[in-house]
Structures are given as C-alpha cells and as structure tokens.
From TrEMBL, chain A:
GO terms for cellular component: plasma membrane. It is found in: Cell membrane. This is Branched-chain amino acid transport system permease protein. Belongs to the binding-protein-dependent transport system permease family. LivHM subfamily. Pfam families: BPD_transp_2. Keywords: Amino-acid transport, Cell membrane, Membrane, Transmembrane, Transmembrane helix, Transport. Coiled coil: none annotated. GO terms for biological process: amino acid transport. It comes from Nonomuraea jiangxiensis. InterPro entries: ABC_transp_permease, BCAA_transport_permease. CDD domains: TM_PBP1_LivH_like (cd06582). Its main location: membrane. The keyword Membrane applies. It is a multi-pass membrane protein.
From TrEMBL, chain B:
This is Branched-chain amino acid transport system ATP-binding protein. Keywords: Amino-acid transport, ATP-binding, Nucleotide-binding, Transport. Gene3D superfamilies: P-loop containing nucleotide triphosphate hydrolases. It comes from the Bacteria. CDD domains: ABC_TM1139_LivF_branched.
C-alpha cells in the first residue's frame, strides 16, 4: 500500500508540471480558440532566459521574476504581431501558424544557446520528508505548491477583478464584449501574456528534472495536451485536475503494468486523449457545445 | 446635448450594400422607431450606428462626429446597443452581466447604485443576481440586456427587436419600462421593431425603411395614420 501511495505522490509531482503547461494551453484556447502548439517551446525559451539570468550572476528568485515579466511581454507581443493578422482565420491556418512558431522558437533557442544540455538550478532545497512510510521530496512539494499558487492567483484575477471579468466576457462573447466597451484586442494580448507567464513557470519547474535543452518541452507538451483534453479545453480547473490525473496515471501505469514500464510511459497520454475524445469529447469539466444543424 | 444626427449613411456586408444614404435626426430624450419589413436594413442601421460594421457617412451624437470608430470606442462615447439576440454573456452570472455593462465607467459606488436602479426597473433580476444569465427565460434575458445597456449610463440606447420571441404580455411590459426609462433618464432611444403598434405607442417619431432607404418619416401619429403603413405593418385599414 505504501508503495502504491508512493507512486501516487510521484505522479502528482509530475502531474503538477503537466497541469501548469495545460493551464497555459487552456488560457489561450479560451480567449482565442487557438490550440497553441508552440506553448511548450515558449516555456522552454522562457526557461533559457531564466538560465541566462542566473548564469549572469543574478539570484534565482530575481531571475525568475525577470523571466516572468519578459515572458508576459513576449506573449503579448507574439499575439499583437503574429496572431493578430490571422485572427478569425480558419482553424487549419491557426494551427499552421502556431506550428511555425514552434519551429521558429525551437530553432532560435538552439541558435542562441546551442543544443547542448545545460544544468538548471533547482530552486528548492534537497531533502526528503517522510510520513507513514511515504517519502516526498521537498522539491515535489515545492512544485505542487507553486502550481497551487499560480492556480489561486488566476482564480483571484478572473473572479474578483474588473480586468478578469472583462477577459471572461471576451472569452464567452467577443462581439458583445466589444459593445460594452471592452478593448477586445488588448484582452486577447493579455491572455497570451498570461499564458506565456504560466508556461514559463512550468518550464522553470521542469528544467531541473529534465535538464535544459531546446527539445525539453516536447514530451511535456504531449502530456499537457492529454491533461487539457481530459479536463476540458475550456476549463482552467479541468486543466489542473487533468494534469494531476495524467501524471498519476502515467506513473502507475509505468510501475504496475509490466508491458509499459518506463519505456512506453509516453504512450499513456495518447491513450488518454483517444479515450476521452471517444467517450467525453468535451472533457471532464468542459462544456459541450451544441449547435443546431 | 445628445441629439443624434445621421447624414447620408451607407453600410453593408462585403460588397453587398444594404443601406443607401440614410438620414435622420433624433432629438435629445426622444424615442425614434424604425419600422420596415424583413431585410429592409433595420438591424444593419443599428449595427452601423454602434460601429459593429463599417459605415460611410456622418454620424454625430451631441455634436461629436463618431463616424468610423470601433464599437468599444463608441461604447465609451455613450452608445449602448442591445443587439439582435441580446448579446448575453450566458455562462456569467446576472450580476456579472450587469457589471460588464458598466465596464466603461470608473468607480464602484456609482455602479452599485445603478444596479439598485436597474432592480427598480426590473425587480425580477434582483432575485437572480447569482444565477447564470443563460438560465433566464427569454423575457428576463431581454430585461437583463436592457439593464446591461443602462449600466453604462448611455446617451443613446439602440434596441434591436426587443419583442423578438417574447410573449405579447411580456413585450408590452418591456415597452412600458423602456418608456419609463426614457422619461426618467432622458436617454435618447432608437428602437427597431417588427411590432409597429407597440413601437409607435412609445415613440415620438418614426421612420419606415424599405430596401435600405427611408421611404417615410414623420411623427408617430402621422405614421400611424398613414394608410400604406397601416396596411403593411399594422394589419388594418385606416
């Protein structure tokens, strides 16, 4: 039993990272209807910025703050410059644009920082806590804590601030939002900025575990897609719950299903995506869209 | 001064021109009814006035030229448009919908006082403040839409077919309230309506639109007395 719980805890730690990237995906999807394939690469790029700041001698937490600010501005800039011109274009166009962005950001990171892996400092102290035979590393707890804080801040923003209300209005009914005087374009840019910031958090959390290199987020993105699909692409809460479930499912499958082991673990999110799309396409927390034929 | 002056307004969708040189003036605090058959361009006229579609010509509100501005800029200038289909933010609560109406304003106190004021006009909304707007009935949603528009303290209120899909009794009540709002707040109102009877009942002046042109203008009494209008829209002969 303790062994099982141990696996669950490990899964939650991994899941929290998927959850944070899934949260970024969902934020953009809610506001713009775009599935941003470049989300992971943006997170990776942000992580390099953090690495560069630390390498330049800044203390970690200052580097992090700087990275989040730069990511926010960068996300807004990308919306204004790259996404704006294709706003309202067919889905295929949008997908191609974000895939293009994926390739561009990936190549740019490789060009600037090379493809050699880099050591990324772990912001949390080493050490392991023990309770009832279950060992939890402080860094796992730290990851869970950070994701909870990010989720909480987003909740406060959307629930209790005027700007958050405006953003939700844009997500539900853009033309009506315009009529009440909301600058919809800026809200969309703000959405991209927020998503890039949340993504940066996930990159910084994952880098100490995986080592920093330009393709670091590829696998994480697939897990994040599974998480967002499972939770519902239009539900931030769903993204987080979905991320945790995917993390736990992956760890348990790796540990207990012999065929899967640690090599085939990456297949788990794909199975989850397919099963959710077959049984409940809107996800656990998503709204089903019903349209009259 | 919130007089609405429209001159030589043309608008359409893509290459299809729908409005061909509309001109009208609505005095401050007046209600103006726009009548006409389906496809005459009534909704398009309101969309052009609120900036939802591109229009050419001159639109002045209280002397300020507003032509060519975006809908959000026009909302900040005091134009509140209750669009066809009501524009409700369905998943948000009734209260959030009302607060969104006041998005262009600053300060919380005034907003809370205005929510009270809207409750005065539409008591039914008061009990449903925490409910999702999408769960309201059609009539309640129309009241919410008008309430949302009033929250911006508009100088010009544009109403698109407020009677659409509502029971006759509800519609009559709604028009009574629109009249009361107009009387109390001196809001200039342009109302597009299929139900010519009701619209003429509250309006001071009216225009009949056909295929994008104004074919008849006058006071509400004059239009009501017009034989052709009577036959086409009121269902009886004078």
């Amino acid at each position: 039993m303790a062994g099982f719980l141990q696996q669950v805890v490990e899964g939650l730690g991994a899941g929290a990272i998927y959850a944070s990237l899934a949260l970024a995906l969902v934020l953009i999807y809610q506001f713009t209807g775009i599935v941003n394939f470049a989300q992971g690469e943006l997170a990776m790029f942000s992580t390099y910025i953090a690495w560069q700041c630390v390498a330049a001698g800044l203390p970690f937490w200052l580097a992090l703050v700087l990275t989040l600010v730069v990511s926010f501005a960068g996300g807004m800039l990308i919306e204004r410059v790259i996404i704006r011109p294709v706003e309202g274009a067919p889905e295929l166009t949008l997908v191609i644009v974000t895939v293009g962005l994926f390739i561009f950001v990936n190549a740019a990171a490789g060009w600037i920082w090379t493809f050699l892996i880099k050591d990324f400092p772990n912001p949390f102290p080493g050490g392991v806590l023990e309770a009832g035979g279950i060992h939890v590393s402080i860094s796992t707890l730290g990851v869970l804590g950070v994701v909870a804080v990010v989720m909480g801040l987003l909740y406060l923003l959307f629930r209790y601030t005027k700007i958050g209300l405006g953003m939700r209005a844009v997500a539900t009914n853009p033309s009506s939002a315009r009529l009440v005087g909301i600058r919809v374009g800026w809200m969309l840019a703000l959405g991209w900025g927020l998503a890039a910031t949340v993504g940066a958090v996930s990159g910084v959390l994952v880098a100490p575990v995986l080592f920093l290199e330009p393709n670091m987020m590829g696998g994480v993105l697939i897990y994040a897609f599974a998480a967002a699909t499972l939770g519902g692409f239009d539900s931030p809460l769903g993204a987080v719950v979905g991320g945790l479930i995917v993390g736990v499912a992956e760890t348990l499958a790796g540990a207990y299903i012999g065929v899967i082991g640690s090599d085939l673990k990456v297949g788990v999110p794909l199975v989850i995506i397919v099963v959710v799309l077959l049984l409940r396409p809107q996800g656990l927390f998503g709204r089903a869209v019903v349209e009259r034929a | 001064m919130s007089t609405l002056e429209v001159e030589d307004l043309t608008a359409g969708y893509g290459d299809a021109r729908v409005l061909h040189g509309i001109g009208l003036t609505v005095g401050e605090g007046e209600i103006c009814a726009i009548l006409g058959p389906n496809g005459a361009g009534k909704t398009t006229l309101l969309r052009a006035l609120s900036g939802m579609i591109k229009a050419r010509g001159r639109v002045r509100l209280g002397g300020t030229d507003l032509a060519g501005r975006s809908p959000d800029a026009l909302a900040r200038q005091g134009i509140a448009h209750v669009p066809e289909g009501r524009g409700t933010f369905m998943p948000l609560t009734v209260e959030e919908n009302l607060r969104l109406g006041a998005f262009v304003r600053r300060g919380r106190d005034g907003v809370n006082a205005d929510i009270e004021r809207i409750h005065g006009y539409f008591p039914v909304l008061k009990d449903r403040m925490k409910q999702a707007a999408g769960s309201l009935s059609g009539g309640e949603q129309q009241m919410l839409a008008i309430g949302r528009a009033l929250m911006s303290r508009p100088r010009l209120l544009l109403l698109d077919e407020p009677s659409l899909g509502l029971a006759p009794l509800v519609t009559r009540e709604l028009f009574r309230i629109v009249q009361a709002i107009n009387a109390e707040e001196q809001t200039t109102v342009v109302v597009v309506e299929q139900n010519a009877h009701l619209a003429l009942g509250i309006a001071q002046q009216a225009h009949v639109l056909e295929t994008g042109r104004i074919v008849l203008s006058g006071t509400a009494e004059q239009i009501r007395a017009d034989e052709q209008v009577a036959q086409s829209y009121l269902g009886y002969r004078v």
